[in-house]
Amino acid sequence: MGDFQVDYGQTLFMCILYLSIGSVSIFCSLTTITLYLTNRDLRRKYILYLVLDCCELLDAISYVLLGTGRGHELLTGVMAVPITVRACFFTKYWPQSLILGTQLPSICTLFLSFERILAVVRPAVYKRMCTQNFKYCFVAMVPVWAVLTLVAAGVSVIGEDGDRVVGTRHCAIITSTSRWYATFHFIFIVLTYVIAFFSTLVVWATRRTLTKSKYGSQDDKLGMILAMSGTSIILLASPAVVMLTIRWDITGWGDIEVAITYAMPGFLSVVNTIISFRFRKELRSQFYNLIGKQVKSHKPEQSMFTRTTMTTRRTTMIHHLS
Predict the structure, then answer these.
(1) Contact assessment for residue 120 and residue 203, using Cβ atoms and an 8 Å cutoff
(2) Cα distances (Å, whole numbers) of residue 76 to 71, 79, 81, 95, 128
(3) Out of the domains of life, which is the source (predicted)?
(4) In this structure, what are the phi and psi dihedrals at residue 165, rounded to the nearest 5 degrees?
(5) Are 64 and 23 in contact (CB under 8 A)?
(6) What is the pTM (predicted TM-score) of this model?
(7) Does the pLDDT of residue 302 top 80, yes or no?
(8) Residue 76 contacts by C-beta under 8 Å, 6 or more apart in sequence?
(9) Which residue of 38, 133, 145, 178 sits 20 to 30 Å from the alpha carbon of 78, by its own alpha carbon?
(10) Residue 310, Cβ neighbours under 10 Å: how many?
(11) What residues form DSSP beta bridges with 307?
(12) What is each CA distance from 47 to 53, 110, 144, in whole angstroms?
């Protein structure tokens, strides 16, 4: 127990699925990154979202590395050859990308949740504190976290946990790091999206309290984001449940179940790209500009995170998402 099972057909399906979802996610991430980088205003306004897309690009690349690496092990007939946890982490090229590809987007999501809730609950503090330089500090913390978490993962396999022999060469996070680190990894990821959901819920509740209309387009958009945040928790909790139940010897899963659940973050990345195009007019305009298509100018869309008082009907722009 505490390991994967090897079935040629199921494992081959896993590799093909990871290569497919990784390729689609790479295309989506590169598209949004290109749009941000080719427009100075978008780069400044959505700097944290740009970093988030870069982290999701790393996640997409990790799927390709994972599918390629496991596919090579399978086709060369060594997938079922035992290996130590330490050897998995230090000799295979995909465990590190798996860690960073899921943790770094979670860190960015945590930063965005903090910014979002501060913008609505304490707009004056947000305006004073969340300057462009402050956002750059957030950006700088992402690579710092990457180094720290990889060091922690490496340290976790130095002792007895690293000597544990696993029966397959899947070399997933749960079989290439210690039990405590793998548990922290998956709980941390789910927890960040739970925080993101509640931050959006606070924004939604605040807007409903401070606005007269319940049917405005901004509330509709925010409701959609709220629903997607809740869905994200379910999608990201499923691989956590599967992986941790394997690692803690609770139950076993086949490669098909593992593949489908672990592909959820990649699927979520694709969905987030679609949502970005749907709710951010500036992103759509930049896309049309790059392909040379003329679009009619419209009145600028109001931010979803906009606080409007009931008495004066004055609008204070405090955070931009659309």
Answers:
(1) yes
(2) 8, 8, 11, 19, 59
(3) Eukaryota
(4) -95, 125
(5) yes
(6) 0.86
(7) no
(8) none
(9) 178
(10) 9
(11) 316
(12) 10, 14, 17
Q: How many CB atoms lie within 10 A of CB 213?
A: 10
Residue range 95-141, pLDDT digits in tens: 999 999 999 999 999 998 888 888 888 888 888 888 888 899 999 99
Give one DSSP letter per residue of 14-38, joined into a string: HHHHHHHHHHHHHHHHHHHHHHHHT
Q: Are 53 and 29 in contact (CB under 8 A)?
A: yes
Q: What are the helix and strand counts (H, E) for the chain?
A: 13, 4
Structure tokens given for 258: 């593992």
CA-to-CA separations, 89 to 156, 158, 161, 178, 188, in angstroms, rounded: 10, 10, 12, 10, 20
Tokens of 194: 């739970």
How many Å apart are CA 234 and CA 240, to the nearest integer?
10
Give the residue extent of every domain in the chain: 8-293
* Sign of the torsion formed by the C-alpha atoms of 29, 33, 34 and 36: positive
Written as six digits, the tokens of 303 are 């931010």
Which of 3, 29, 41, 65 minimizes the C-alpha distance to 281?
A: 41
DSSP label at 303?
A: P
Q: Which CATH number applies to 8-293?
A: 1.20.1070.10
Residue for token pair 């997409």: 60
Task: Dump pLDDT digits (tens) for 49-75.
Answer: 999 999 999 999 999 999 999 999 999
DSSP 184-239: HHHHHHHHHHHHHHHHHHHHHHHHHHH-S-SS-HHHHHHHHHHHHHHHHHHHHHHH
